[in-house]
Design goal:
This protein is an alpha/beta fold. 37% of the residues lie in helices and 14% in strands. α3 links the parallel β3 (81-85) and β4 (104-106). Mean pLDDT is 91; it is low at 4-8.
Length: 266
């Protein structure tokens, strides 16, 4: 079980509440076990102590991969996981507060460094950013560019390994058919999706994912032979390591898809 915070306040400096996380795990457990029927491969590759940056592929118009990974690691390994995401979520009324209480942290380098190096926690990041969940279903399981490799530089600076996680299942939970850019601009959100769920279920489809079978494969941790704590690292080296990690995850996804017999049953 996740250890209770020794602080007088239940809310830590990141805004996370262990009571809210415990409630989230109880509520999400049936979804994890019975709706998505999650199976892990290589979970023992995630360090049981010390900081590490978990890196996953991001998919589905409203992605289910983040809660699946966070729930799985916290319940099966007993380690806290903080989800690094765009600051956009923090600014939403009510949603932003709940996101923080449930372990969400704005994805800024200083936050990541403190979590990984100073506090020796696990942090989860999706290097594809919004390009992953906003891609059409026709491009499912085709990893998008990993930005400028910022996650690699963060891991180098903090002196922690990157642990890649290949996720199969999230693409089919909420397939994106098309976007409505005009509505996204009005609502000031990155994109407004129209999903197969919405076509079949109407507005309810924004909240109810399809019951695709989830399989996750944890790849070997990637360490970097560089001195931690430097202000900068060669951009070419950062990009090379980033692309190497992306290629290894794409290879794992391709292999998992070849072995999969059914979207719904695995």
């Amino acid at each position: 079980m996740i250890a209770e915070s020794p602080r007088l306040s239940d809310v830590d400096e990141w805004g996370r509440s262990e009571r809210i996380r415990a409630l989230a795990r109880r509520v999400y457990a049936p979804v994890y076990s019975h709706w998505f029927r999650v199976e892990w491969e290589g979970l023992d590759k995630i360090p049981t102590a010390g900081g590490a940056l978990l890196v996953g592929n991001h998919a589905g118009a409203i992605p289910s991969d983040a809660p699946v990974i966070m729930h799985g690691v916290e319940t099966e390994l007993g380690r806290r996981v903080y989800g690094l995401a765009d600051y956009f979520f923090r600014g939403l009324p009510v949603v932003g507060t709940l996101w923080s209480r449930a372990g969400g942290v704005p994805a800024r380098p200083d936050n990541a460094y403190r979590l990984l190096h100073e506090h020796q926690e696990l942090a989860l990041v999706f290097p594809e950013g919004e390009k992953g969940p906003s891609k059409p279903y026709a491009k499912r399981y085709q990893l998008q560019r990993f930005g400028r490799g910022g996650f690699v530089e963060i891991a180098m600076t903090a002196g922690v390994p990157v642990v890649p996680i290949a996720v199969v299942g999230s693409e089919e939970t909420m397939p994106l058919l098309w976007q409505i850019p005009q509505l996204a601009r009005v609502l000031r959100i990155p994109y407004f999706p129209v999903t197969a769920n919405m076509v079949l279920m109407g507005p309810l489809g924004l909240a109810v994912p399809f019951p695709a079978k989830f399989r996750l494969r944890v790849l070997d941790p990637v360490t970097f032979d560089v001195e931690p704590g430097r202000e900068r690292y060669p951009k070419s080296e950062v990009l090379e390591e980033s692309e190497r990690i992306r290629a290894s995850m794409q290879h794992a996804l391709d292999d998992m898809l070849r072995r999969r017999r059914s979207v719904w049953f695995g």
